[in-house]
């Protein structure tokens, strides 16, 4: 009997995933959950924050296509490298997503 693979890592992108949404997250959720958008998101974030802070059972990694100037801003001003177990930027890897080589190089960095 074949067992399901164990999930050990979570890979996140920066643009459109981690950064602020124009108009804000509360406004974006209102069409779906109405007045309870703030409550809904806060409950969701309470569950996610420990994992994203490295207190969960998963490695949490950044994989993003960035040129060097924006990547440097993300690293220094936004502090992304301190938030993730491993941060991989396309300008460092020399290849961009969705090229399979990006994910192969990211896997080496994560030591999967």
Automatic annotation (TrEMBL):
InterPro entries: HAD-like_sf, HAD_sf. SUPFAM superfamilies: HAD-like. This is FMN phosphatase YigB (HAD superfamily). It comes from Kribbella italica.
